[in-house]
């Protein structure tokens, strides 16, 4: 059936879907990527913060000895700047990573249509479908799988840490804290990697769902192509109007012609020769009904008609309106113009003349 949506969406349909916010996305991709980046940058952030904290702590005795308000405000300002500079690399990296994750999932688009109230979103049936439909089932499966994977990652990450923690008395406090921090970072990184794998699967499912939603029927594809290429009837009407305007301009310039070369009834080509503008030019041409109209207008304006079958055919085939006569036809055109000048000198140029009929035959 033509109403079944069996066809892949066109580029225009995809663009429209993006404007309406129908883009395959998963929020987990940016979240897990940010967690992985944070686990990589956190040691550097702590190291930078540690150095700045030590510098601030060194100023505390001086503040205690001289509890001046100006000095205290300066220390507070330095503390705030130190905190900002310490977390700036981590914050900037997470911001860039979040934007990159969004751009990787179909680009950055502002879906203004989502801000417009739409009563179909308040339809309780649509809400029930979202709760008990295939999408809800996938979300449930994803939640169970995510819990199982993260539980497994947590177990294997802290399995080796438990004996160390219970036997913590055998290790110095600094070494014990180092082991705990290392295990925590390993846990975060392992969880982030597992989360990225699940996010990739979630994105694939979301993309498949969106592509299914924006599929088109054969009739919709035809209408899309018609809108892109233009309505054939409208294009034909525009083309006919352009041709009519071109013929009108051509007929308006016809009285300036020196001669019309005919074939004798099928083809007509009007020539004008102005020595100051170079070679003779074709100012009108046509075949069939247009040729008949050219002959009629030529008779009205007493323009001589010269029958030369080979020349008329050659000019009609090789010359555009407004173009100069090609060099290979100079001789034949010069012969016709000389003949017409002779007729004008005798005062009998109007009408149809067959000076080369025998040669054409």
From TrEMBL:
<dbReference type="Pfam" id="PF01312">
    <property type="entry name" value="Bac_export_2"/>
</dbReference>
<keyword id="KW-0282">Flagellum</keyword>
<keyword id="KW-0472">Membrane</keyword>
<feature type="transmembrane region" description="Helical">
    <location>
        <begin position="79"/>
        <end position="104"/>
    </location>
</feature>
<dbReference type="InterPro" id="IPR006135">
    <property type="entry name" value="T3SS_substrate_exporter"/>
</dbReference>
<protein>
    <submittedName>
        <fullName>Flagellar biosynthesis protein FlhB</fullName>
    </submittedName>
</protein>
<keyword id="KW-0812">Transmembrane</keyword>
<dbReference type="InterPro" id="IPR029025">
    <property type="entry name" value="T3SS_substrate_exporter_C"/>
</dbReference>
<keyword id="KW-0969">Cilium</keyword>
<keyword id="KW-0966">Cell projection</keyword>
<keyword id="KW-1133">Transmembrane helix</keyword>
<feature type="region of interest" description="Disordered">
    <location>
        <begin position="1"/>
        <end position="23"/>
    </location>
</feature>
